[in-house]
Amino acid sequence: MTTDYLHYPYASQRMTTVANKGMVATSQPLAAQAGLDLLKSGGNAIDAAIATAAVLTVVEPTSNGIGGDAFALVWTKGKLHGLNGSGPAPQSISIDSVKERGYNEIPKYGWIPVTVPGIPASWAALSKRFGKLSLKEALAPAIHYAEEGFPVSPILSKFWKGAYTKFAEEFKAEEFQHWFETFAPDGRAPEVGEVWKSKGHAETLRQIAETDAASFYKGEIADQIDAFSKTYNGFLTKEDLAAFKPEWVDPISVQYRGYDVWEIPPNGQGLIALSTLNIVKGFEFDHKESVDTYHKQIEAMKLAFADGQKYITDEHDMSVAVRDLLSPAYGESRRQLIGEEALLPSPGQPPKGGTVYLATADDEGNMVSFIQSNYMGFGSGLVVPGTGIALQNRGHNFSMDPEHDNALKGGKRTYHTIIPGFLSKDGDPIGPFGVMGGFMQPQGHLQVITNLIDFHLNPQSALDAPRWQWVEGKRVWVESTFPPHLAEALSRKGHEIEVQLEKGAFGRGQIIWRDQQSGTLFGGTESRTDGTIAAY
Q1: What kind and span of H or E run contains 421?
Q2: 279 C-beta neighbours (distance < 10 Å), count
Q3: Domain positions in the chain
Q4: Which residue(s) pair with 73 in the sheet?
Q5: Helices 291-311 and 484-492: angle between axes, nearest 10 degrees
Q6: pLDDT, tens digit, for every residue of 136-150?
Q7: Which of 16, 67, 233, 526 could form a disulfide with 531 if both were Cys (CB 3.0 to 4.6 A apart)?
Q8: Which residues of 107-121 are buried (b: 16+ CB within 10 A; e: fewer)?
Q9: Can you tell me the distance from the alpha carbon of 31 to that of 510, in angstroms, rounded to the nearest whole number?
Q10: CA gap 83, 290 in Å, rounded
């Protein structure tokens, strides 16, 4: 991407960060600095990504933790690699076994939605294959912050207090008390600037570092998780943990205006972002602040989501092929459905044939797009006693309909919301991008990519631009900074527009682009959170 796009006169809350040796962009300053320190001490972008991700489990526990899942896109030595670090449902769970416990839908909290955590094994896999430093060196900063503590940042404190208030009302059962012992030891959420620490979290990270994550899946930590599960009749066992391995996958892409946009293949919802781009690339967007632009983007996103929610699951269980969903012919057939009025989305039939995000780059040409999450903030509400491990609740996304592609089944990976993105052109890397935030993520990817490519915004402006989010049916949220006259015009087209004051509803993103001519790095970070870029 040439530097002409870097000077577009769009009002941003910050300036694009520029550097040439190394860069780390994420949602928390201490985590970004930890990654930069790894770069300066001889590590590469992969080591920096692992270090940053590990620190984030400590300093942003409202969005991720050791007990969650991860995905990564890694550019190194002229090739893009994908890592699917999402864990499956326990082997013993089934639709019938959940119904026997009195549920017709999978609950959000407790043991039923808990799936195998994939984060520790993902760190180890990335380190072993591409890192220059040991996993022990990469996790050292996170261990320090967990053991010595860190001062809580403003936006983190807000989300932490919200979670505490909700959990205090809902979590009365005994198995949830370990969450309060770990994250509210003084009977409340920590205040801004107050130092919080977790000795158990530090010890867990230390064991992961010293054993290359083996302790988590086959050793002492696995035994602790297994014992906790057995105590409360959970489905997860140490056999489930021992059987898990992250999967190296071939990234999927679509070409958009001469660029290749890359995502992780299903079970992730990156397919939705690509499907939307595959639809809208048939339109010409003359102006960003145009009702026609917003209308067509929203309509295309609704159609892509309808397909995604019907078909996306563990790729082996999908009833349609990814290549068919992304085919030009299918994109054209969906495009033809978009008219002048808002529609109610429905899936088509193609021909048969609370997350954290970070981006890193180094001066060797390596670049990483990495995302990890517990889902819904703190996840299941369960914390393994004495370990700091908040277990994820990804199983909540499974369907209880046995005929659905994403039907619950033991050993199966569910439809997954977290997605890293990457952009390239003519076989050369441009760089990583991502927008975390549940089902906002593919919507954020679409808006960021079109802001950059169609409207020539620089990385920071592309992130700062007002966002929209399709919610369901014809209902669309817009930020308070969204132009009122465009919101009114969209309403006249049948969209049910609601101004959403909570900035957290619109995701939190990061971008690092490498200029193809100079090699200079340009970074953008999210103004909707405590985001920062560390660079040199």
Answers
A1: strand 421-425
A2: 27
A3: 1-8+26-536
A4: 82, 369
A5: 60
A6: 999 999 999 999 999
A7: 526
A8: ebbbbbbbbbbbbbb
A9: 13
A10: 38
Task: Please tell me the predicted confidence (pLDDT) of residue 10.
Answer: 43
Query: What SS3 state is found at 173?
Result: coil
CA distance 336 to 343: 12
**pLDDT band, very low/low/confident/very high, at 241 (cuts 50, 70, 90):** very high
Cα separation, 121 vs 123, in Å, equals 5
Nearest to 93 by CA among 394, 447, 448: 394
Return the structure tokens found at 312: 């996306």
In whole angstroms, what is the distance from residue 468 CA to residue 465 CA? 10
- Report if pTM > 0.90: yes
Among 336, 147, 116, 62, residue whose Cα is nearest residue 247: 116
Q: Which of 452, 449, 456, 512 is nearest to 20 (CA)?
A: 512
CA distances from 479 to 72, 147, 340, 469 (A): 29, 39, 23, 9
At 103-148, the pLDDT tens digits run 999 999 999 999 999 999 999 999 999 999 999 999 999 999 999 9
User: Cα separation of 331 and 293, whole Å?
Assistant: 17
* Residue bearing tokens 């912050």: 145
Inter-residue contact 400 to 105 (CB < 8 Å): yes
Q: What is residue 15's predicted lDDT score, i.e. its pLDDT?
A: 80
Assigned token pair, 302: 């609704």
Residue given tokens 């790095």 in the structure block: 521
Token pair, residue 198, equals: 């977790």
Known active-site residue 26? no
Among residues 34, 57, 179, 47, which one has the least CA distance to residue 118?
57
Q: Pick the catalytic residue: 17, 26, 52, 355?
A: 355
pLDDT in tens, 86-102: 999 999 999 999 999 99
Task: Provide the token pair at 224.
Answer: 């602790």
